From TrEMBL, chain A:
The chain crosses the membrane at residues 21-42, 279-304, 325-351, 363-386. Keywords: Cell membrane, Membrane, Transmembrane, Transmembrane helix. It holds the Pfam family MacB_PCD. This is ABC transporter permease. It is found in: Cell membrane. Residues 21-244 form the MacB-like periplasmic core domain. Residues 285-394 form the ABC3 transporter permease C-terminal domain. The keyword Transmembrane applies. Its main location: membrane. The keyword RNA-binding does not apply. It is a multi-pass membrane protein. The lineage of its organism: Bacteria, Bacillati, Actinomycetota, Actinomycetes, Kitasatosporales. Belongs to the ABC-4 integral membrane protein family. It comes from Streptantibioticus parmotrematis.
Length: 403, 294
């Protein structure tokens, strides 16, 4: 009895009851596809978080004024951040791990170009180092220069959303728009970052710090200072240096009474990524249960098949089928069910992962495909073995008498 | 003839219905080939204690003990019809002879092999190589073409595909179904289905053909066809054991056993073991004889 012959019997057995076989396969199909798809969705969402970490720039640290919410700081007076603070941070002697420093003021203004008006949610006044630290790259035109900052030139780099909202299809580079009553010449348009949060990071106007201070915010305090560390591994060292420098600047001796905060957004997002991991595991567990249910479906159908074909088993035994062959035939049938169901499930899972699901682009984990398929086949073998054993151990005389 | 010698020794005189000595009816003496079937002191009991039913028991022990069990010897080339009403134990005998069931007591030697000592796997081999089954209800595998049905026992025996096909085709041609090889059971008449079953039974060249009421579900025309095939098989040397309750079918056999309540009550030799079965010895006389006009 060669394996090919056994396989032929199995195929014939399955073909005898096409609807039943198809429905059983559907159970396995759904299980396998669910495992692949749900894991891909979970993986996709953590991948999205990872991407936004990279967008943010893993080296960047943000210094904000105030003790912040939830902080254990007991600072009584809060000294605002100033350009002098930023200058002190840029000193390589005091802060050797700091690559660049970009003081930042933020405001919101209305931009007008040829009668089109648009409220820009973020107007940032800063230094050119900001582009590097915030991982912002221009798609068209150029960044403004240190020279523009020194001369307080009225130039701006705008985000892609701002560009389309204010200028429409016109290329904004070289055009002049009126921002809060002050004319600005657009020198560059940023690449689209794409937002994951509720605020569109592409609705932004970035201009030299003194220009924005002069036109809108005044030469007072800064909103925040964006600091870029030398490397992603140097962020902790840079964070300590910043704290030391600013404590000196603000005449603070008690490290628990800081009037500023140095935050590392990347670490925040890493926490979020690990939350997503838990979510992925949970989704996987739900999918695994559906795979298990599919497996029980196989057992059920195989038991029915064995009961229905008891007489046939008796005939086969009477003409000399050994126990092993009967066992093999029914095992082959159940394995074939799970094999085809699993194969189709992989196809459906891979196909489904090409579509966006609840705003998340699924990213298929190759191990999940192999794993789900292998588990499906193993389930076919495992759950099929009980009915197959039952068929094989039927006594021929009783099987033949069965009606 | 060890079995029959022993039976005589053990007190045939005590039983009024003792079997006639098969030696006098053309046995081959102690130096011939082993008998195909040799059954000694065979008993089959269903249930236990008070509810026990003795399906096969043979003659009663003169000393009042357990029944002595059925003794039976079937020579190679013989054509035995086992007759009896329902409940006489003929189906039980058939199941034991076919290795589908095991006796409660006694020994069964099939083609010289003691079947009692075989395990499940060896029994399946014996069923495959030594026995060809023909059932009353045909027992073909559903939805399977005739050729595949006949190939099946060979497939279980591990015969190569090409050889299998050749032998299956030869067997189907032998039963006159050379033109119906790819028909499924539901596309065949009862007689044709039974002929497929006969082809399936003989394709492995078994030591004996075991037929359980092979014509029970057939009309008279198909009955004649199937019996003619069995007659020819026997004439070519195949041992046949046939179970029936119809005298018309039993007429074809060389030897007729009658079972009543688990005992062999009658053993009639209709034709010698060697040579053709009655229907082929003198076809004209056979057809003309009473009961031959079926």
């Amino acid at each position: 009895m060669n394996p090919l012959q056994t396989l032929r019997f199995a195929v014939a057995g399955l073909a005898a009851n096409k609807v039943r076989s198809a429905l059983t396969m559907l159970g396995v199909l759904i299980g396998v596809a669910a495992v692949i798809l749900l894991l891909a969705v979970g993986n996709g969402s953590s991948q999205a978080v990872k991407d936004s970490i990279e967008k943010l720039g893993t080296n960047s640290l943000t210094v904000t004024s105030g003790s912040g919410f939830g902080s254990e700081s007991s600072a009584t007076t809060v000294k605002p951040l100033t350009v002098d603070d930023a200058k002190a941070l840029a000193d390589p002697k005091q802060a050797p791990d700091v690559e660049s420093v970009a003081p930042e003021v933020t405001t919101s203004q209305t931009a007008i170009y040829q009668g089109t008006s648009h409220t820009v949610s973020q107007v940032v006044g800063t230094y050119p180092a900001y582009f590097e630290a915030s991982n912002s790259k221009v798609a068209k035109g150029d960044y403004f220069s240190d020279d523009d900052v020194l001369n307080s030139r009225k130039v701006a780099v705008i985000g892609s959303t701002t560009a389309t909202d204010v200028f429409g299809t016109v290329n904004p580079v070289g055009k002049q728009m009126v921002l809060g009553g002050t004319p600005f010449t657009v020198v560059g348009v940023l690449q689209t970052k794409g937002g994951t949060g509720f605020q569109d990071p592409d609705d932004v106007v970035i201009a030299p710090l003194p220009t924005v201070q002069n036109a809108f915010t005044g030469f007072g305090s800064l909103n925040q200072i964006l600091v870029e560390a030398k490397s992603s591994s140097a962020t902790t060292a840079a964070q300590n240096e910043i704290t030391t420098v600013l404590m000196g600047q603000h005449d603070i001796t008690d490290p628990t009474a800081l009037d500023f905060q140095v935050s590392n957004q990347a670490s925040l997002l890493t926490t979020q990524a690990s939350t997503n991991q838990t979510f992925t595991v949970l989704l996987g567990a739900v999918a695994a249960i559906s795979l298990l249910v599919g497996g029980i479906g196989i057992t059920n159908i195989m038991l029915v098949t064995v009961a229905e074909r008891t007489r046939e088993i008796g005939i086969r035994k009477a003409i000399g089928a050994p126990k092993g062959v009967i066992l093999g035939q029914f095992l082959a049938e159940s394995t074939l069910l799970s094999l085809i169901g699993g194969g189709l499930g992989v196809a459906v899972g891979l196909l489904g992962s090409r579509f966006k699901i609840v705003g998340i682009t699924p990213v298929v984990i190759p191990e999940s495909v192999v794993g789900a398929f292998a588990i499906a086949v193993a389930i076919g073998l495992f759950f099929g073995s009980y009915p197959a054993k039952r068929a094989a151990s039927l006594r021929p005389i009783e099987a033949l008498r069965h009606e | 003839m060890i079995g029959s010698l022993r039976q005589r020794r053990r007190g045939a005189d005590a039983d009024a219905n003792a079997m006639p000595d098969p030696d006098s009816l053309g046995g081959q003496g102690p130096w011939g080939p082993p008998p195909v079937i040799e059954v000694r002191a065979l008993r089959k009991v269903y249930g236990h204690g008070e509810a026990a039913v003795h399906a096969l028991k043979g003659p009663d022990d003169p000393e009042g003990g357990e029944p002595l069990g059925v003794e039976l010897t079937v020579e190679q080339g013989d054509f035995v019809a086992v007759m009896g009403s329902s409940g006489s134990g003929k189906s039980t005998l058939m199941n034991i002879l076919g290795c589908l069931d095991v006796p409660t007591h006694g020994r069964y030697l099939l083609d010289g092999i003691d079947v009692g000592g075989l395990d499940e796997h060896q029994l399946s081999l014996v069923r495959n190589r030594k026995i060809g089954f023909v059932f009353q209800s045909f027992n073909l595998i559903p939805r399977t073409p005739a050729l595949d049905q006949v190939e099946l026992p060979l497939a279980y025996a591990g015969v190569k595909s090409a050889e299998r096909r050749r032998r299956a085709e030869a067997a189907l041609t032998l039963v006159g179904l050379g033109d119906r090889m790819d028909h499924r059971p539901n596309e065949l008449s009862g007689g044709q289905q039974q002929r497929v079953a006969v082809a399936r039974a003989l394709v492995t060249a078994p030591a004996m053909l075991l037929a359980d009421e092979p014509t029970g579900n057939l009309d008279s025309h198909s009955t004649e066809e199937v019996l003619a095939i069995i007659d020819r098989l026997n004439a070519s040397g195949r041992t046949v054991v046939l179970i029936t309750h119809e005298d018309e079918v039993a007429r074809h056999a060389k030897r007729v056993l009658r079972l009543v309540d688990g005992r062999v009550v009658d053993d009639v030799r209709q034709a010698p073991v060697d040579g053709p079965p009655p229907a082929l010895r003198d076809p004209a006389a056979f057809a003309a004889a009473p009961g031959g006009g079926r």
